[in-house]
Amino acid sequence: MMSMMQSVFSDTAWSIWEPLIEEVRPKRKTPPKNLRRTISAIFWRHQNGAKWRALPSEFGPWWIAAQLFIRRSKLGVWERLFEKLKDRDQALGMVFLDGTTIRAHHKAAGAAKKGDTEDASGIVRRLATHVKALAPRSA
């Protein structure tokens, strides 16, 4: 049976993503102890549209993934990762949205706040959809 973490990143996919994630990681910061688990939690949350507190326990404490996501959003890490992957996979730069499936949040009328993570959320959502796409295909 495949674990929840492996359903986000296969071993092959993680071998591709890990060096890219390490490249964009803030160098002054201490790396997380369970990087794969934490990044998997962030991507799983954005793939499923779940609340942070709804993360399955297999991903560890929900607040660790939430903190890492927010901190790296404010430092522009997700944008740098997206740019690295976009150069590698041209299809990543082209995202099409069907307006029939998009609903505005009830707070959508307000302007973005300083340090807002909305842009980062969209980027991580796009990255999460391409986790399996970057894994080498077996013949």
TrEMBL record:
Q: Which domain of life is it from?
A: Bacteria
Positions of the Insertion element IS402-like domain: 10-82
Instruction: Check the record and name the InterPro entries matching this protein.
Output: IS402-like_dom, Transposase_6_like
Pfam families, alphabetized: DUF4096 (PF13340)
The transmembrane segments are: none
Q: What is this protein called?
A: Transposase
Species whose genome carries this gene: Neoasaia chiangmaiensis
Q: What is the lineage of its organism?
A: Bacteria, Pseudomonadati, Pseudomonadota, Alphaproteobacteria, Acetobacterales
